[in-house]
Design brief:
It contains 27 helices and no strands. By secondary structure, it is mainly alpha-helical. The longest helix has 29 residues. The chain is elongated and about 85 Å long.
Length: 592
Amino acid sequence: MVERWKQAAKQHLTPKLFHEVVQAFRAAVAITQGDQEGAEASKFQVTDSAVFNALVTFCIRDLFGCLQKLLFGKASKDSSRLLQPSSSPLWGKLRLDVKAYLSSVIQLVACVAETTVAAALLQHVGSSVPYFLTFPKQCRMLLKRMVVLWSTGEETLRVLAFLVLIRVCRHKKDTFLSPVLKQMYITYVRNCKFTSPSTLPLISFMQRTLTELLALDTSVAYQHAFLYIRQLAIHLRSAMTTHKKETHQSVYNWQFVHCLQLWCRVLSTVCPSDALQPLIYPLAQVVLGCIKLVPTARFYPLRMHCVRALTLLSESTITFIPVLPFILEVFQQVDFNRKPGRMSSKPINFAVILKLSKVNLQEKAYRDGLVEQLYDLTLEYLHSQAHSIAFPELALPAILQLKSFLRECKVANYCRQVRQLLEKVQENADHICSLRQRASFSVANCQAVDAWEKQTRKEGTPLTKYYSQWRKLRDREIQLEISGKERLEDLDFPEVKRRKLEDKKDEDRVEFKDLFDLDSDEDEATDFSEKGAQQRVEEEDEDDSSSSAREGSDADDGGPDAEAGLAPRELWQLLAQGPEDELQDLQLSEED
């Protein structure tokens, strides 16, 4: 029957045929939902899995293409223009069946677990958006389900769900954009409570896609940004006034930090925007207040996240934000010459932590990672200001601090990285000074200064050229590190089960009881060793007489046994009755 429907629909779809197909599809979906009453009340019964698969495949792949031809005839040449199904004269006859079909599709999306099937179903939903827009109730149900898939589904499903969301919001901004943004933001905050290397790509995806939706309408984006940045500021003010552990934890957590990163990304993406420009200053103040709340070494990772967010905001909005002091302050607070208290087998991943433990602060991996982070942050911020006409004055504190660090630090690896950074910064400062000397305008001429900076940015500076090369290498290192971890996770290594020393000795005694019976007396052990030695000597004499002669000559000449003054029998007896092996722990120094 399904095949007959398929052939008839391809030749000429009629409203009656479409009604029958929709009724059968509803019966099939009712079975997946466990609705036996609804399935029995339907005209059709779907009991075979092959029939179910054939029916769903026909509806997803072919049915709406035939419906499109029935409503509009030939396809429109302008693919960008959205066709309204309600404009067709046949819409009145098909409206109820289309509404029932769309409701069943939403139910099917909610219960499908297979990724490939769900992806095909979401592609069908994306092509059916014009029909969903005709029915507000079904559209709201669809958007609610798409937000769930956008935040928790597999990677392909998340992308397809977002495409459906943005297509609906683009065509119905006034109706759906604001509630969708609110729901997506709440879902984003709920899903970024915990951060790990595996969840970080999902959080980054949600940040970028939510930013893209907010960029559709800056006036709506301002309302949401103002409200949620104000909530962050209230949490920060409460933590600064009460100075309690609970209020500090309401700020120093992943949800707060990821929200700051989101709004910095939003303001950086939509800039220049007259609507969102007033939010730059309050957002920067909240981020700076977050850094200053508990400025201790244990929260250096959180400081790094805030500094990166401010650097992005400053560079994209062309707004000066005093970020550099919070980077240079770390050089003064940490004693890099101090010997580490303990060694660590693996480096510290600053990207997925907010707080360091007391044990971490004593490790060598902490200082190695900290120097690398300071190098990256200083380079990123100074690169964002490398074209500025005030770069020599802006970089002077950094130059002085880096020189002071090189004078005091005795660790060669740290000095090599900092010296390289210092050379690049000084080279860029000298380059800007040489260009300024040839300028003919005054500092008060803002238009001339802006034109000069744009020209300098276009031509490039030594620091920007070095940064572009360094960024490529850095991204490649991160990709190799991620791919290496994935390869190690895929390998099925055998599990090594370590036994206790006492258990191992007991097992050895049982296993070698026939060879070395430790409970036997000394005479039995002596007889055993003598017999074994005599039998072995006789076999050697029979097999190779020349070898025995050489051994005899060696013994006469003063071999190792002869030097020790032991006869062969005595040696075998000593070996049989020797003490148990002792295991000694190796003491490794920190220098090793």
